[in-house]
Write a structure and sequence with these properties.
The complex is a heterodimer of chains A (460) and B (254). With 460 residues, chain A is an alpha/beta fold. Chain A has helices at 4-9, 30-39, 113-125, 142-159, 176-183, 198-204, 210-233, 258-271, 301-316, 321-324, 338-345, 359-362, 370-379, 387-393, 397-400, 418-427, 434-437, 441-444, 453-459, and strands at residues 72-73, 79-80, 82-86, 131-135, 165-169, 188-190, 245-251, 276-281, 352-353, 404-405. Chain A has 2 domains: 9-248, no CATH class; 338-431, no CATH class. A 6-stranded parallel sheet of chain A has the order 3-4-5-6-7-8. In chain A, strands 1-2 form a two-stranded antiparallel ribbon. In chain A, strands 9-10 form a two-stranded parallel ribbon. Chain B has 254 residues and is an alpha/beta fold. The termini of chain B are far apart. The chains are: A alpha/beta (460), B alpha/beta (254). The complex binds iron/sulfur cluster. Iron/sulfur cluster (SF4) binds next to loops of chain A.
Chain lengths: 460, 254
Amino acid sequence: MSSSESMTTYTYEGIPQYMPQGAGGLRPSMFQKLNILADAAKYDVACTSSGTARSNDGTGMGSCERSGICHSYSADGRCISLLKILFTNECIYDCKYCINRRSNDVIRTSFTPDEVCTLTIEFYRRNYIEGLFLSSGILRSPDYTMELIYAAIYKLRKEYNFQGYIHVKAIPGASKELIQKVGFLADRMSVNLELPTAESLKLLAPHKTRKNILTPMRLVQNRMAENKQELALYRNAPGFVPAGQSTQMIIGATPETDFQIMQVAQSLYQRFELKRVFYSAFIHVNEDSLLPARTDEGPPLLREHRLYQADWLLRYYHFRAEELLSEENPNFNVLFDPKCNWALKHLGQFPVEINRADYKMLLRVPGLGYKSAVRIVKARRVGTLDFSDLKKIGVVLKRAMYFITCNGKMLYPTKLEEDYIARNLLSAGEKLPGEVVNMGYHQLSLFDDVGFSGKMQQYM
Amino acid sequence: MKTVYVCSNTVTGIYSAIYDAWKARKGEEECSVALRGAVETELFCEYVEVEETVHKAQAVEALICRHLGREAYWDIYHAVLAADTGKGDAILGAMLAAKTIPDSRRIMEHLSHPKVEKVFELSRSVIGEAHFLKGAVRFRELAGGVLYARISPKAQVLTCLAPHFADRLPLENWMIYDRVHRMFVIHEAKKRWILVQDEFLDPERLPDLTEEEKEYTKLWKGFVHAVSVESRENLKLQRQHLPLRFRPDMVEYM
Ligand code: SF4
């Protein structure tokens, strides 16, 4: 795949370098640009650098760690791993929830491919970052934008010989060829689903369609599968999106239930083989009659938190969305994490005997993570485990004790009753998210709209 | 009578002590390892100063690999770097315990043995700190183009960090200074890294930062500020992930 032609025919004309408002038409400094284009990218929640391991070949800069590396944490407590920027915040679309939509009066600017490269390289050699996360508003057309992104990462890989992590957004509507070319340079690609259902998308992102989003997702999936075979045949074949693809959806801008959201996530994992689905609590940045009314509550962080916990259960704990939620009970519990909530509703399957239960059942015990479960399975091969062993292994007995026995005995005599256990877990200082601890009863009723309040009364 | 082998807080020191104890064929209750400066004197103990040699250390490494396997070696390799005065004793204890079980290669599964458990915990904490620092190290460009970073870790993690950065930045001249343990790791472009005591290098007398460096510090600080979402601000969460003790060495918090 020689791309030198496309590089030479490519011109930078038409990339806006001005700041129409506020700066009197002056070219912005690098500092201003970075501020604007990082600020505009911050609503994209994915910042992981995991999923691929690569050593440097000795001729360039950069490597990748399979587990990913966090380099810093911003004031919102999120990990900073990648230089997360937009190529441009110009956009011809008008998504209602987005700060960069064309109807907004904000300062617009763009990087050049060289600026993106220099920033990445200079940040990387100082060990500020694991790599680059390049997204973009849509300048002129999806293809034009994708071409610019391609130009930037082509330079970064081929001219600057950068071997660190690159995450690229595939622009919905961009041509198949462009997306493929980018995929051979990127470690991860993502197309944002934006909203859980096609109706919501139509309402809030009138220029996007579900089809336009799912098409590149499918393309990347298929190409990755083909690439696996190529790599099996020729070890030195170029890799295609080795860290897999991810997506994100906005939570709370539209009326979907947690159950609907989890079912969407589940089918993305199964049918599109995504590596990760990210959930982004809706943040009010625009006034628009189509958006939910603004409240003082801030973004629905607890709901987002519960969805991530449930997502974890889908990916690592062999749960299915239908086990966690149902049409009758379509939203997660404000007080208990999804696994604990499940256990309370399925007490018939407990207590679990630690020395005998199979691995999958161990995974379902509250207070017992998958690492502890692995350690238990290993440790009980060489001896019988009791409660003090479990503590050493890292089991949170405060939570697990209601659900387990060691050699047929419980830690303390307890009743196997939903109300009893729920009350005890709560009074034992069940790790409640800050949002709940700081809330009085009155505020809790605000969760009415996602169905949290019924549960509240039951356990209080 | 119990024999306590006293050694320096170095890999060579601790492995040499283990070597001597192993050679003497002592049982678990009859020997222990203590670090010089942290010896708690007990009655009815004999204290022996260990002669520390690279040969002994290598012999113990080989012994661990052969009898305990790769995985246990990996745990012990990290435990020996921990900031814990009982680490030598825990490693020796775990090695002696391995003799008493049918398959010595499964020693790290015997978490109910207190010494094994301790080695396991120490290794987790060192691996954790080293992994964290792989992200938190901040290089600054000094006049002449050398990248310089300073860290203040609890454990002696330089040897865990060096291979990582040597792989990642093979064409750069860089060095990392551990000011707690007063050691440098130095990497010259395209060469192997080396570990140096700070007697040979004075961290106070370094060249100035380049002008570019100041520019990139400013850009980075601006970036860290810009990517934070105001309505999600959560300084407690930030502190949980990024403990204050690391921040004095990170430019974005300077
Ligand atoms: S396409 Fe929509 S979400 Fe993306 S930058 Fe434009 S307005 Fe924002």
